[in-house]
Design brief:
With 166 residues, the protein is an alpha+beta fold. It has helices at 3-17, 64-87, 105-108, 133-146, 148-154; strands at residues 29-32, 38-42, 45-49, 93-102, 118-128. Helix content is 39%, strand content 21%. Helix 2 packs across helix 4 and helix 2 crosses helix 5.
Length: 166
């Protein structure tokens, strides 16, 4: 048994026996350090996010929507690996490309009809390995059903905001 599969089985057993351990709180904090540049802290990591010059940034880093695509892309790839291990499916390679379209009129308030976020997102997954196409198609359906960031993009979610300070 692979180390990854053993780890997944141990974690699955732990949260099955004690569902209270399944709730994980994730946090990110960020501060504006330039006209549109943000330094964000996630655990022990520091990330930089910026906007292109056309939106007032210095184009020093990916913009927030690009970071969202990176999150979806990487989560898909990881979820393919995890579920292939769980199901005993051999994957030689997984490559994921994610494309999103946005209408910046929503961000700029030019059009009340334009959303400020993505108007569409597509995911292209390339898999290589010895399994047949039906096996990989079944894996794709499983991944889409269990990928956390896919769920963030696809399902309605309650988000609350609170303004603190003066």
């Amino acid at each position: 048994m692979s180390t990854l599969k053993a780890t997944l089985e141990a974690t699955t057993d732990a949260v099955t026996l004690n569902p209270g351990r399944a709730s994980v709180k994730l946090e990110a904090d960020g501060a504006l350090v330039g006209p549109c540049e943000v330094r964000a802290r996630v655990g022990d990591w520091t990330l930089v996010v910026d906007e292109p010059e056309a939106l007032g940034g210095a184009d020093a880093a990916p913009n927030p929507l690009q970071m969202a695509l990176v999150a979806l892309c990487s989560c898909q790839a990881i979820t393919y690996r995890l579920w292939a291990e769980k199901k005993g499916i051999t994957l030689d390679d997984v490559e994921v490309s994610v494309r999103g379209t946005t209408d910046i009129r929503g961000l700029l308030g030019v059009s009340g009809a334009a959303r400020p976020g993505f108007t569409g997102v597509s995911i292209d997954v390339r898999i290589s390995g010895p399994e047949d196409r039906d096996t990989y198609e079944e894996l794709r359906r499983t991944v889409d059903a269990h990928c956390p960031v896919f769920d963030v993009f696809a399902a309605p979610l309650t988000v609350t905001t609170r303004l603190r300070g003066t």
